[in-house]
Amino acid sequence: MGDRTVGxxxxxxxxxCLRQPLxxxxxxxxxxxxxxxxxxxRAWFGWPDVPQxxxxxxxxxxxxxxxxxxxxxxxxxxxAFSEVLYVPWGEWVQPTAFRRNVRDxxxxxxxxxxxxxxx
Length: 119
What we know:
By secondary structure, the protein is of the alpha+beta class. It has a domain at 4-83. It has 3 helices and 6 strands; from the N terminus they run ββββαααββ.
């Protein structure tokens, strides 16, 4: 996909989210990224309980100063990598192709056919 790039967190590189589409807010935002949850029994089944990580993510959400957010994001990455919360085993991309007379196809992570028209 042409729009794939390094994940961005408030305009700053966020290593845990490498190579995710920018339009997927759930992947570039540590507050809702399921892979870096340290919420233990309140998270996905079997997830670790890492209170330090949960505090850092909460602090990141509440912080308004972008420089401090960057520091917090760096700390989130350090804790997440040291705890090995998950291991991304790869990527999956759904290739799609359309005839030349198919217009207004929405760019999305999966094929959707809203507002498509033939010319």
